[in-house]
Specification:
The strands form ten sheets. Strands 3, 4, 5, 6, 7, 8 and 11 form a seven-stranded antiparallel β-sheet that branches. The protein is 24% helix and 27% strand. It is elongated and about 135 Å long. With 806 residues, the protein is α+β, with helices and mostly antiparallel strands. Helix 1 (5-11) packs across helix 3 (186-197), helix 10 packs across helix 12 (472-483) and helix 18 (731-741) crosses helix 19 (782-800).
């Protein structure tokens, strides 16, 4: 929203508030000021002159010699090249010595042999327009010789401009939040400023214009839910040769709009002034009636911007008896537009429900000031006032004879204001201060709200222009905003602080992250939305939740595993010549498994490439399943209960059948690890084998508290054994069997060799184990150790069929 400061000051008396203070007030009230710029660039020495005659240049066809009365006591001879210069025009004249924007200084000059004592200026040369095709015409009553910056433009039917092209006038641009559609007008901004400064408004007179014709145009609301009110008025006999006065063109310019024609300029002016979008039709091109209805299949509409669009049946249009004539709330049609020869017009002003307009302009590739306002909500009681205001301005500028205002409304579909409860105690709790009832009533009253006193506070009825006030907290926000956020005292909570320490045995996620980082991993964060194809490839049994409105087609479902994101990250790293990738992520996966949606916190990781960074101290080799298992073991060890976890052979559609394991904790499955299936790796364009893991953080949540055991003072004894046993026997079973055989003296078991080959029968393997024995209260004898070894061998033989290797 852009407007002139001088225009705002005409609505509200701000004599004691300068520009800087005004900007601060607007920003603190929630209407953030995005920019403050001078209304006109600096120039001096420019006065109002009268062109007395236009004579041809004796030596140049495109130049003219103009005697100009600039109020300097003598007529000035000025050479001008503008095609529109004419005798009797009042124009801006830059005198000799004048300084114009861009550093141009006017000097006495000789053009093709003819002396020129000044310059007749265009709007562009004065910095009042981006471009112009000729000199800038001024109103016929402009005072000759008056300094242009101080000139007051007066017209019998127009508002006096207090600042006219003055350096002290500023253009203020607000960056409004979507909920403050009521401030997309000068009236709305003035209302806010008046409330803040406790100053009454002084709006221009907007008395109804009596009808001088009986012409009425029939209106039908065929879609009252989308368009519950439509007002229009016929005006006949306007002057097609009239031009918009300079004060109107200048206000539009300062508000960022370009002057087009009197009818369009007036509708744009009312939009800026009152916030009500309007449109003017050429009456002779509108067939018989106006209907606010939904578009029909196959209908097309040529818009004012030259585009032709195919209308959808969910689009509200304004139509006559034959075809659509406007895209409701967005843009008018070209076939019924007001042109240079238009003499009869139909002014329209409607209320469109925000839900009916929201998103429609964007869906057609459009963005207009009208749709911007209707999407946020326009006051449903403003339509007839806007028609009356536009009528008065048009009659003053182009003349004509108005008919009566036709106002058709469906009261059942107009927005209804709801009384809201406001409690004193709730104000105190939310704002942190207690306001007097008189202050609350004063603030809300000045905001245009109706109040009824109750025992606990008030019942409040918001104004029709405030679509954003729906709840009690909205009222409290308004009170805090107008009272001033900087006036709310700093207070501290009075409730007792009760800190709750986390359980000592709880998993420390920071320690888990540190463990993985210490082993060469990098933490990543990926999207929770993934491609359906990638999700199907990685977890075909996951049944992902599809998004109703995805960001893009490759982010259309919720992930059931963190693997898709890790795989994508690994692919991107490989595409950038990173051959060794070690990454992990903690986050949520979203699973249904035939029931309600569940969010589960998991830890996932991926490794690919070489096991060690490139170096001279160790030979290069590719990472394998056991490298990943070692990393995962380090993570599980942070719980202090590493012995509670075990790996069980498993299968998964995305993992290699022979290199997949299920991670269990005391018999409960908590995760999965393994190598990405080679076929999946080829489809995903992975370079080399990739190994993944994913475990539930909830399952790791409770660890084991460390407990002290006295250290033995007596020496330990080691015995190495090589046992032969069936190849399918897991090392974990061997370890459990040994511990069960000798729980008292055995302190540690070390597996230091696994052998298949010569002298070992097919289907068998050899495990070399180091058994370390130690007693807490005595030195072990050879007999003690030999007896323990014998018990271990006997149990291995009985339970696992193991024997000593020859």
């Amino acid at each position: 929203m852009r407007f002139s400061e001088s225009w705002l000051r005409e609505w509200v008396d701000l004599a004691e508030v300068d520009t800087r203070a005004l900007v601060a007030q607007l920003t603190m009230a929630g209407l953030e000021v995005d920019a403050v710029e001078p209304a006109a660039p600096p120039f001096e020495g420019v006065v109002i002159g009268l062109v007395e005659a236009v004579e041809p240049h004796p030596d140049a066809m495109k130049l003219r010699v103009c005697p100009v009365d600039a109020g300097q006591g003598e007529t000035l001879q000025i050479v001008c090249g503008a095609a529109n210069v004419a005798a009797g025009m009042r124009v801006p004249v830059a005198l000799v010595g004048a300084n114009l924007p861009g550093g141009l200084r006017i000097k006495r000059a000789r053009l093709r042999g003819v002396e020129s004592f000044g310059m007749i200026c265009s709007a562009a040369e004065l910095g009042l327009a981006e471009s112009s095709t000729g000199i800038m015409p001024l109103d016929a009553d402009a005072a000759i010789g008056e300094d242009l910056r101080r000139w007051l433009g007066l017209d019998d039917q127009c508002i006096e401009l207090r600042r006219w092209l003055g350096l002290d006038d500023q253009c203020i641009e607000l960056d409004l939040t979507p909920d403050r559609g009521d401030c997309l007008s000068l009236a709305g901004v003035a209302r806010e400023v008046g409330v803040i400064n406790r100053t009454p408004l002084h709006p221009p007179a907007m008395e109804p214009v009596p009808a001088s014709l009986e012409d009425c145009f029939p209106v039908h609301l065929d879609a009252p839910t989308a368009c519950p009110r439509y007002a229009c008025r016929v005006i006949r006999g306007i002057d097609p040769a009239a031009v918009s006065p300079l004060w109107l063109r200048e206000r539009l310019r300062r508000s960022g709009l370009r002057s087009i024609s009197p009818v369009v300029d007036v509708t744009n002016y009312v939009l800026l002034e009152l916030g009500q979008p309007m449109h003017g039709f050429d009456l002779r091109r509108v067939d018989g009636e106006i209907r606010a209805r939904m578009a029909r299949p196959g209908e097309r509409l040529a818009l004012l911007n030259g585009e032709k669009i195919d209308l959808r049946d969910d689009t509200l249009v304004i139509a006559d008896a034959r075809r659509p004539v406007a895209l409701a709330g967005i843009m008018g049609g070209a076939e019924t537009a007001v042109e240079e020869g238009t003499r009869d017009i139909l002014l329209e002003s409607a209320f469109f429900a925000p839900a009916a307009i929201s998103g429609k302009a964007r869906s057609y590739g459009l963005a207009t000031d009208s749709s911007h306002r209707f999407e946020r909500g326009v006051d449903p009681r403003l339509q007839t006032q806007a028609v009356e205001r536009a009528t008065r301005l048009l009659l003053d500028i182009v003349g004509g004879h108005p008919g009566p205002v036709v106002d058709v409304a469906s009261s059942a579909h107009l927005p209804e204001r709801q009384w809201l409860r406001l409690r004193r105690e709730r104000i105190r709790r939310v704002l942190g201060l207690a306001l007097d009832d008189t202050d609350v009533e004063d603030i809300l009253g000045r905001l245009g709200m109706e109040l009824q006193t109750t025992e606990e506070g008030w019942q409040v009825l918001p104004p029709t222009s405030r679509f954003d006030i729906l709840l009690e907290v909205d009222l409290i926000a308004e009170i805090g905003r107008i009272h001033g956020y900087d006036n709310i005292p700093v207070t501290h909570g009075l409730s007792a602080a009760r800190t709750k320490a986390p359980p000592e045995a709880a998993l420390d996620l920071g320690r888990v992250r540190g463990t993985l980082v210490g082993r060469g991993y990098h933490e990543v964060i990926t999207y929770s939305f993934v491609s359906p194809e990638l999700q199907e490839l990685v977890d075909p049994d996951g049944a992902p939740l599809a998004l109703a409105n995805p960001i893009s087609s490759d982010m259309a479902v919720m992930r059931t595993s963190l693997w898709p994101g890790l795989i994508q990250a690994a692919r991107q790293n490989q595409a950038r010549q990173e051959r060794r990738v070690r990454i992990f992520e903690t986050g949520l996966r979203f699973r249904t498994d035939g029931g309600p949606l569940r969010q589960e916190s998991v830890l996932s990781g991926l490794v690919t490439g070489t096991a060690l960074p490139e170096q001279w101290g160790a030979p290069s080799r590719l990472v394998d399943f056991y490298d990943l298992k070692a990393d995962l073991d380090a993570v599980l060890a942070t719980t202090g209960a590493a012995e509670a976890f075990r790996y069980v052979p498993a299968e998964h559609p995305a993992l290699h059948p022979g290199q997949t394991a299920r991670v269990e904790r005391e018999g409960d499955a908590i995760g999965l690890t393994g190598m990405l299936h080679p076929a999946a790796g080829v489809r995903l364009d992975m370079d080399g084998n990739a190994f993944l893991f994913e475990i539930s953080l909830e399952a790791l949540g409770q660890g084991v508290l460390p407990a002290f055991k006295p250290l033995s003072k007596f020496p330990a004894v080691r015995r190495d054994l090589a046992v032969v046993l069936p190849e399918d026997v897991e090392h974990r079973r061997v370890r459990d069997c040994i511990l069960a055989a000798e729980p008292e003296l055995l302190r540690k078991i070390v597996l230091f060799d696994v052998y298949h080959g010569e002298k070992i029968d097919s289907g068998l393997k050899s495990l070399a184990l180091g058994l370390i024995f130690q007693a807490p209260s005595q030195t072990l004898t050879d007999g003690d150790v030999e007896g323990a070894v014998a018990r271990v061998l006997a149990r291995l033989g009985d339970e696992l069929g193991a024997r000593l290797r020859d």
